[in-house]
Amino acid sequence: MANDLALKGADAKAPGVDGQQRRRRATAGFLPALLPALLPALLRDPWFLLLLALVALGLTWAVTGTTPEAVAALWHWSPALLRGLAMNIQISLLAMALGTLVGLVIGALSLSPSWLLRRLTRAYVLLFRNAPILVLVYFTTYVFPFELNLGGWYVPFPDWIKVVIGLGLPASANVAEIFRGAIQSIPSAQWEAAQSLAFRRTQIFRMVVLPQCVRRMLPSWMNLMASITMSTSLASLVGVHDLVDTATVASNTVARSDFTILVYFTLLALFFAYCYPIARWTRYLERRHEHH
Fold first, then answer.
1. Do 86 and 30 sit in the same domain of this protein?
2. Domain membership flag for residue 78
3. DSSP conformation class of 155
4. CB-CB contact of 217 with 209 (8 Å)
5. Domain check: are 94 and 2 in the same one?
6. What digits encode the pLDDT tens for the residues 146-157?
7. Same domain, 134 and 6
8. N or C end of the chain: which has fewer CB within 10 A?
9. Among 77, 84, 81, 133, which Cα is nearest to 240's?
């Protein structure tokens, strides 16, 4: 009886303890119930998980605190950051254009009746698909000259063009495989039917095969573009003034820890804003291709 009275007295003196325990138990029960509801959405759309990670990062930055001086410095550096992002976009678009043109040629040659051409194209694809992209960027940066001698005229050969070539090599190897797979996925009956109608091989390829290949290639091509875009961040390692290099220069110039967190969070948000629509469009094309 005395022990019961003592316990009641202790509870009366600390009425908030029991309330805190109830809140902890309610929270502990809420999270396991919430996760099964969110898990299907996360598995269905991994980008939603990345978006949650960005939100969590932003909340973490807000909790750690920032200063008006850091925000003002970010506003001051925002034009330079946008110019850096434009450089990344330019490199990604040109690298994909170069990779697509070369990859289509390599992919077509890989289906050639010539044994030698098939071997050479296969070696090209295996080499540049499995080579680290950073190694290729360094390779093209230091193998190509810094200026070209055109009949006595010296023309600068910028580093960003070398990065375009370095990223275009793996892009071309991947496009070649995508193109070869798309052609081989066309049923042979369509080739035979077109030949029975007296179509020439070039006509069959242009009018029957190529339109179907484009539809089959688009999802994989868009996925490759997103990958190449994210790889453009390596350009800063060879002296290209892209978004990453601009953020690093800004961080070193301002020399404030809160600004460093803010500027790299902005860098992450800019890359996400550029790559996320590409990923969404890729998923849309994949679903459309599955329905057809």
1. no
2. yes
3. E
4. no
5. no
6. 887 777 788 888
7. no
8. N
9. 84
Tell me the per-residue pLDDT of 48-104, one tens digit each, with 9 for 90 and over.
656 666 666 665 555 556 677 888 888 899 999 999 999 999 999 999 999 999 999
- Which token pair is 150? 């055109």
**Cα 101 to Cα 23, 144, 166, 175, 177, distances in angstroms:** 62, 21, 15, 9, 13
Confidence (pTM): 0.74
Query: Which residue type sits at 278?
Result: I
**61 domain residue, yes or no:** no
The verdict on 10 and 151 lying in the same domain is no
Show the CA angle centred on residue 93, arms to residues 235 and 225, nearest 5°: 90
Tokens representing residue 75 in the block: 């506003």
102 and 167 part of one domain: yes
> The tokens of 285 are what?
């094309």
How many folded domains does the chain comprise?
2
**DSSP H helical ranges for the chain:** 2-13, 15-44, 46-64, 68-109, 115-130, 133-143, 159-184, 188-196, 201-204, 210-231, 243-254, 257-291
| Residue 238 lies inside a defined structural domain of this protein | yes
Check if the beta carbon of residue 165 is closer than 8 Å to that of residue 240.
no
